[in-house]
Specification:
Layout (H helix, E strand, L loop, with lengths): L2 H21 L5 H19 L7 H26 L3 H26 L7
Length: 116
């Protein structure tokens, strides 16, 4: 496995750990903000500098960047939730977004299917 694929595997593992924390509903806004900040920093330091990407990997990386920004908004919405039902819905949205990011990592890790 190439070094840059190892980075995506590592990022997927971090995302899965975060999603696990979120789905256990034992989180608060400061915890979510801190974990998100750590994920964003890791992405910027480890994934963004990867320069030898093909068009497919570049597309996924762009989408991952967008999803991380949207995740930031989801965390802000969670922070603003005043009722437990709303907070639970926000956590579900956060979990779904993390699942999307994990799927993008796994898509990059899969060998590209030959055209035919």
């Amino acid at each position: 496995m190439s070094v840059h694929l190892e980075k995506y595997q590592e990022f997927a593992t971090l995302l899965e750990q975060f999603r696990s924390d979120v789905t256990q509903n034992q989180v608060n806004a400061p915890f979510l903000r801190q974990r998100l900040r750590e994920l964003q920093q890791w992405f910027v330091q480890q994934i963004v500098p990867i320069y030898d990407l093909d068009w497919r990997e570049q597309s996924y990386q762009t989408e991952m960047s967008k999803q991380l920004r949207l995740l930031e908004i989801d965390v802000m919405f969670f922070q603003g939730a005043r009722q437990s039902v709303t907070a639970e819905a926000r956590l579900k949205t956060i979990s779904d977004r993390l699942t999307t990011l994990i799927q993008y990592c796994h898509a990059i890790l899969q060998p590209e299917a030959p055209e035919g």
